[in-house]
Give the backbone structure.
Amino acid sequence: MKQTPYPAPLFTLPASDGKVYSLDELKGTWVVLYVYPKDETPGCTIEACSFRDAHTEILKRRAVLLGLSMDDEKSHKAFESKHNLPFPLLSDATGDIIKKYDAWGKKIFGKEGILRRTYIINPSGEVVKVYGRVTPLGHGQQVIDELDTLQR
């Protein structure tokens, strides 16, 4: 992983709420971007629900929360609806953005795929924190605590 801080790779991607999100348009705002392997898998559901439960506190810290995977918007919408997720899920169908964020690589048993990672991006557009090994349960609170530290 790269040494922080570094410029966050730009993206413009469709989301579960029908909007298109651009990192460039979010400059001036804290962004929490969490990359996860697949909608409706056990670990990803636990992580999404952890962020759901932490969402109000993340907003209080003037941060935007975005999920990102290769699932399409239809899958994201169903996942979002089933688990009452109050934040958008971005769709990177080609995996290009996921790769630019270094969230693609060897997984268990040598198979390649999406690595569960979370990035905190400051209002200047720099990645200031990377969680390279994410434990899904309680990760939302971990991010809240880090935002508190970074915003002091």
Summary: DSSP finds four helices and ten strands in the chain. Residues 6-150 form a domain with the Glutaredoxin fold (CATH 3.40.30.10).
